[in-house]
Amino acid sequence: MSEIPALATNLRETLIRVVRRMRAEPGPPIARMAILNRLDRTTGAGISDLAAAERMRPQSMAQAVRELEDDGLVSRRPDPDDRRRVVIELTADGRETLRVTGERRDTWLAGVLERELDDEERRQLEQALALLGRIAEA
Amino acid sequence: MSEIPALATNLRETLIRVVRRMRAEPGPPIARMAILNRLDRTTGAGISDLAAAERMRPQSMAQAVRELEDDGLVSRRPDPDDRRRVVIELTADGRETLRVTGERRDTWLAGVLERELDDEERRQLEQALALLGRIAEA
DNA sequence: TATTGTTATACTCTATAACTATA
DNA sequence: TATAGTTATAGAGTATAACAATA
Predict the structure, then answer these.
(1) Does residue B59 reach within 7 angstroms of strand C, measured from its CB?
(2) What is the pLDDT of residue B22?
(3) Of the four listed, A8, A58, A59, B67, which is most buried by Cβ atoms within 10 Å?
(4) Rounded to an integer, what distance in angstroms lies between the CA atom of residue B8 and that of residue A123?
(5) Which residues of A34-44 are buried (b: 16+ CB within 10 A; e: fewer)?
């Protein structure tokens, strides 16, 4: 096994390449898709909640949400219990975009996973995603 | 095990979060570090070679290399055998930056790998990086 | 004609700073 | 004082289009 610093470098450089490759596929921008997907499995989230979940600054999330709202994919309503907060929700359009375009976005990736990897490798990859999730939270 | 489309979505969303988290650490921009690192283990690479290796467009790589050159971290010399090509090389400053600042860039990540993961998990992660590399090449 | 590289331009993504409103 | 959110601005990262030079 590699030394830990070498593993860290390898991790950083491999991930940046894969993300670049994913971004190159046609479809809606991946950062936006991630927000729509998260809203689809969350209820009552505000800007700060979304920012924390996606590991970005609230200001960055506010701008992303504003753009999604401009495109009619999300809506915001005030939280009656805490008038500082706004609750972000998917619109019908947002849900449709997630369903249709979201599938298209991952068509290439799913195809690669099916063609290039076998069952055992996909299982290994899925387990590694749990580890990567822990790293992102650290 | 998840269905393949779900795994694809999980992969995309997990990786974007981890990369965000890595980018948030102080240090030189990770895209530049990746280029310096690659030059450190490559000889005779031109713009197109680097772009292909890093899975980005030659125009994007040309700009990145120009900025690295402006900062004195890489140099370019014409290829005597093919006058269209330029060969990109690390300067002494580039090598020093890679050594000193590069380590600093990955200090956080190496610390997380050491604290949060055990030997077996690090081994799993390393194997998964090979799979991710194959995905990036696909 | 195909390949290598360049410049110009624009879009995506994210951050910091400075601010308002509410708890 | 602390928290939720907003707007302005800037920087990092990458792409497409249009082009020149060489193979």
Answers:
(1) yes
(2) 94
(3) A8
(4) 12
(5) bbbbbbeeeee
Contact A1 B119 (CB under 8 A): yes
Q: Is the pLDDT of residue A103 over 90?
A: no
How many Å apart are CA A18 and CA A33, to the nearest integer? 17
List A74's β-bridge partners, or say none: A90
Whole-Å CA distances, A21 to B29, B125, B136 = 18, 20, 6
pLDDT tier for residue B27 given thresholds of 50, 70 and 90: confident
A and B: number of Cβ contacts within 8 A: 184
CA atoms within 13 A on the CB side of B72: 4
Tell me what the mean pLDDT of segment A82-101 comes to: 95
pLDDT band at B45 (very low <50, low <70, confident <90, very high): very high
CA-based nearest residue in chain A for residue B109: A8
Tell whether B134 lies on the interface with A, counting CB pairs under 8 A. yes
CA of A7 to C1' of C10 (A): 36
Size of chain B in residues: 138
Contact B55 A24 (CB under 8 A): yes
